[in-house]
Design brief:
The chain is mainly beta. The chain is built from 1 helix and 22 strands. The strands form 6 sheets. The chain has a 4-stranded antiparallel beta sheet, with no helix packed on it. Strand 16 and strand 17 form a beta hairpin. The protein is elongated, with a radius of gyration of 23 Å. The chain starts with a helix and ends with a strand. Residues 4-26 have low confidence and may be disordered.
Length: 204
C-alpha cells in the first residue's frame, strides 16, 4: 500500500507539472518570441531565433533591415535567407557586460547564391560555388561532395580543410578522425592541434 501511495503521489505531481508547464508556455494563448509576449497576431515564430510579421523579419530582437518577409525562410538557428540574400546571425558577449547582455550579430553572406544555398550545420554551409563557415566563404575543390567532419575539419572527395584552410597531401575520400588529436587517410597518420597545424607521419 505504501508503494502504491508513493506511485500515486508521483503521478499526481508529474501531471501538475505538465499542466503548469502548458499554461506557462502558452502565455494565455498569446504568442511568445525571444522570451516576450508578442502582441501582433500576424507575427510568425519561425524557430527559437527568427520570427517575422507582415513587414519585418527579426533575429531575436534585432530587425533584419531590407529582408523580404514574404520569401524569408530559416535553415537553422543561424542561417536564413530570402529571395535575394543569405544571412548568418549569431549572439556574442562583450567583456565589459559579459554576464549582463547578449548582443546580436546579423551578417549578409557575401556572394552566396540563395537558389542553391544549403546549411550543413550551425557553422557550415555551401552553395553551388563555394563553402561557408560562420557565414564566411572559402574555396573548396569539389563543392558537390563537400561535407563536414567536425568543427575543425571539412573535406570533399579530393581534399581536406583544417579551419577552412586546404591541407596538402591528404586524401579526402579516405580521411577520418581517430580522436581529438589524431586522424588518418589511406597513406598517413596525422597529428593536429599542437600547435594549430597538421603534421603527417606515414602509416607503418
Amino acid at each position: 500500500l505504501k508503494s502504491l501511495f508513493k506511485a500515486l503521489l508521483m503521478i499526481t505531481g508529474i501531471l501538475s507539472m505538465i499542466k503548469c508547464g502548458k499554461g506557462k508556455d502558452s502565455a494565455g494563448g498569446k504568442i511568445m518570441f525571444n522570451g516576450k509576449v508578442v502582441e501582433d497576431k500576424n507575427f510568425i515564430v519561425l524557430n527559437n531565433s527568427f520570427g517575422k510579421d507582415s513587414t519585418k523579419v527579426y533575429y531575436k530582437h534585432h530587425v533584419l533591415t531590407n529582408a523580404d518577409p514574404a520569401t524569408f525562410t530559416t535553415l537553422n538557428e543561424h542561417y536564413a535567407m530570402d529571395k535575394n540574400k543569405v544571412y548568418y546571425c549569431d549572439e556574442y558577449r562583450e567583456s565589459q557586460t559579459y554576464f549582463l547582455t547578449k548582443n546580436q550579430k546579423v551578417n549578409i553572406v557575401d556572394n552566396a547564391d540563395p537558389a542553391s544555398f544549403q546549411a550543413i550545420d550551425d557553422d557550415y554551409a555551401k552553395d553551388k560555388n563555394q563553402a561557408f563557415f560562420l557565414g564566411n566563404s572559402f574555396k573548396v575543390k569539389d563543392v558537390a561532395s563537400f561535407e563536414v567532419v567536425d568543427r575543425l575539419f571539412s573535406k570533399d572527395k579530393l581534399q581536406v580543410y583544417y579551419n577552412t584552410q586546404f591541407i596538402p597531401n591528404i586524401d579526402g575520400t579516405s580521411f577520418e578522425l581517430i580522436n581529438n588529436n589524431h586522424a588518418k587517410d589511406k597513406d598517413n597518420y596525422f597529428i593536429y592541434g599542437f600547435p594549430s597545424e597538421v603534421i603527417s607521419t606515414p602509416l607503418l
